[in-house]
Automatic annotation (TrEMBL):
Name the UniProt record assigns to this protein: Nitroreductase
Entry's Gene Ontology molecular function annotations: oxidoreductase activity
Gene3D superfamilies: NADH Oxidase (3.40.109.10)
Domain Nitroreductase: 45-220
Annotated source species: Dictyoglomus turgidum (strain DSM 6724 / Z-1310)
Length: 221
């Protein structure tokens, strides 16, 4: 019963949050499904990179990264690029954009079904994210920072407390996809787990039961 109540409250909270999203919508370029680098090479060269050139990402690069993170890989069943317990897909991807060609800086949210981003805030809030992530410089200056969050009620409603484990496993799948895609694009990233959950939630004004799980700064190396 507890999980059912949590599910209902979570849905109500998510609906309220969805109605609050009335910012600019940007349709992303179609991602590529082929690469000049093999999966074996991407695994070989995958490293955590914390320092980036002062250059913007392209919209195509952003599109490719977001597709790798949570994009739709099966149009019939709406399966995504990451495995998910029960195909519930609790992860949500937010983007703090500092420098992307042709896109205004700010905070955005990725919509996998339409492969688009919606602007939530015109302020990229990078100073606040920097403070909330224990003053890690790469969070402050990267052209793009992905903030991976999870709607815990989705998975806990079906799997109970074990759903918490499944969500963190899924976050790892998502992060590895981003790592390998960055290698393929000649970009660098690092998975950041050291941050104040409550502060990140306040900065993004996250709906109830949605919790940040990872930050991933991304830039050219």
């Amino acid at each position: 019963m507890e999980y059912v109540i949590s599910f209902i409250i979570g849905v109500i909270s998510l609906i309220k949050f969805t109605y609050a999203q009335n910012g600019k919508v940007i349709k992303l370029p179609t991602p590529s499904f082929k690469s000049s680098i093999s999966i074996e090479e991407a695994l070989l060269y995958r490293r955590s990179k914390r320092f980036y050139k002062d250059l913007p990402l392209t919209t195509q690069e952003l599109s490719q990264i977001l597709w790798a993170s949570q994009g739709i890989s099966d149009s019939d069943y709406k399966f995504r690029t990451c495995p998910s317990a029960g195909a519930l897909y609790p992860l949500e991807v937010y983007i703090s954009i500092l420098k992307v060609e042709g896109i205004e800086s700010g905070i955005y949210k990725y919509t996998p079904e339409k492969h688009e981003i919606i602007q939530l805030y015109k302020n990229h809030k990078r100073d606040e994210l920097y403070e909330a992530s224990l003053k890690q410089e790469w969070v402050k200056w990267a052209p793009v920072v992905l903030i991976i969050c999870a709607s815990f009620y989705k998975t806990k409603a079906r799997y109970g407390e074990r759903g918490i484990r499944y969500i963190y496993i899924e976050t790892g799948h998502c992060a590895q996809n981003i790592y390998l895609q960055c290698v393929s694009l000649g970009l660098g990233t690092v998975a950041v787990g050291a941050f104040d959950d409550d502060e990140i939630s306040k900065i993004l004004n996250l709906p109830k039961f949605e919790i940040p799980t990872y930050l991933m700064p991304i830039g050219k190396i």
